[in-house]
């Protein structure tokens, strides 16, 4: 009898071990897409200017990808911003990038090379338009920029696209009615009051390049009211991606003095090309969503990345790899 019980005990132990191994295998299959080893190789990610949010996000995403796909090399390329980023991916100079939705649609409307190959991976977070002037400036509205020295962003940036459109909506010619400067977030803030009367920026909140000058209390934001947003929408085209909103008082506390600032926002898209490997794109999409909190601890705007909204990558259709991830990870 004792021998029989021992055999039964061993059999149950073996069955338990097999069941545990099967459960572990299923768990690993769920955690690791398709149960395969992580993708390898090299990809190029176009970011933005060194003091901007795109660059910081790219650096943190690369670190997260290194953990999930240790054999994948991610090369980061700085850029002027959204317009250059879209062109780089469309032309094959980069594999992935972040760009504002209005810049993407502008590229598509113009019928630029490779526009039909562009695909969305995830909607990330919103860029807020930030028009900064010295605290004692007489500039109260965008229309007051007439005759002023204004930084309107680098030539291939999303900031330039927005600044030009805003000036026109306010009845100003960007080339004749202001003294334009091509300063971006790297140099513009430091020149305010020293060669510049105003500075346009469009980025996630808060942007490190502005946080430094915001602490001084020597600058303020010029409101961009709903009338200008309506005027932009009336002009048609990619302006439909602009939405009126308020920059919360918590964005730059010392600069806003507890007051929200009327402005407008546009969504940012993580994007690639249709020919990008679906398996790699699926893994990358998973990392983007899973690393939200880790990246968000350093890039505040990244905290807004959400599985329920990430799939809305208009004007771009979802890449097949991203689609597979969202289907497997329904909330």
What brief labels describe this structure?
331 residues; alpha/beta; ten-stranded mixed sheet; 10 strands; 20% strand
Report the total helices.
13
Radius of gyration: 24 Å
> Which geometry do the CA atoms define?
globular
Helical proportion?
25-40%
Order of helices and strands: HEHEHEHEEHEHEHEHEHEHHHH
In terms of DSSP E residues, the strand content is 15-25%
Unreliable residue stretches: 1-6, 17-31
Characterize the main sheet. 10 strands, mixed
Question: How would you characterize this protein structure?
Answer:
This protein is α/β, with parallel strands linked by helices and 331 residues long. The protein is 40% helix and 20% strand. The protein is built from 13 helices and ten strands. The protein has helices at residues 2-31, 53-68, 82-91, 101-109, 158-169, 188-191, 208-214, 226-234, 253-256, 278-290, 292-296, 307-310, 320-328; strands spanning 41-46, 72-77, 96-100, 118-134, 149-151, 179-181, 198-203, 219-221, 243-247, 261-273. Strands 1, 2, 3, 4, 5, 6, 7, 8, 9 and 10 form a ten-stranded mixed beta sheet that branches. Helix 5 (158-169) links the parallel strand 5 (149-151) and strand 6 (179-181). Helix 2 (53-68) crosses helix 10 (278-290). The longest helix has 30 residues, at 2-31. Residues 1-6 and 17-31 have low confidence and may be disordered.
């Amino acid at each position: 009898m004792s021998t029989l019980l021992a055999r039964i005990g061993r059999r149950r132990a073996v069955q338990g071990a097999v069941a545990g191994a099967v459960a572990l295998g299923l768990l690993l299959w769920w955690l690791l897409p398709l149960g395969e080893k992580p993708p390898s190789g090299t990809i190029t990610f176009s970011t933005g200017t060194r003091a901007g949010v795109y660059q910081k996000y790219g650096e943190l995403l690369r670190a997260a990808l290194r953990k999930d796909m240790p054999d994948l090399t991610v090369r980061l390329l700085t850029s002027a911003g959204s317009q250059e980023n879209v062109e780089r991916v469309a032309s094959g100079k980069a594999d992935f990038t972040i760009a504002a939705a209005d810049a993407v649609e502008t590229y598509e409307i113009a019928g630029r090379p490779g526009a039909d190959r562009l695909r969305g991976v995830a909607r990330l977070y919103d860029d807020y338009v930030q028009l900064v002037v010295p605290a004692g400036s007489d500039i109260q509205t965008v229309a007051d920029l007439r005759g002023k020295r204004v930084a309107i962003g680098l030539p291939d940036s999303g900031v330039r696209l927005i600044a030009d459109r805003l000036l026109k909506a306010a009845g100003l010619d960007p080339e004749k009615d202001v003294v334009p400067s091509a300063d971006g977030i790297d140099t513009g803030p430091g020149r305010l009051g020293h060669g510049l009367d105003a500075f346009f920026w469009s980025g996630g909140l808060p942007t490190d390049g502005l946080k430094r000058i915001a602490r001084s209390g020597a600058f303020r934001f010029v409101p961009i009211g709903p009338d200008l947003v309506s005027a932009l929408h009336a002009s048609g085209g990619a302006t439909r991606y602009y939405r009126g909103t308020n920059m919360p008082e918590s964005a730059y506390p010392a600069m806003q003095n507890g007051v929200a600032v009327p402005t407008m926002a546009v969504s940012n898209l993580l994007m690639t090309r249709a020919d990008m490997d679906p398996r790699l794109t699926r893994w990358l999409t998973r990392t983007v969503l899973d690393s939200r909190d880790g990246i968000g601890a350093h890039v505040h705007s990244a905290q807004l990345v959400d599985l329920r909204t990430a799939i809305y990558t208009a004007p771009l259709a979802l890449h097949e790899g991203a689609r597979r991830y969202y289907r497997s990870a329904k909330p």
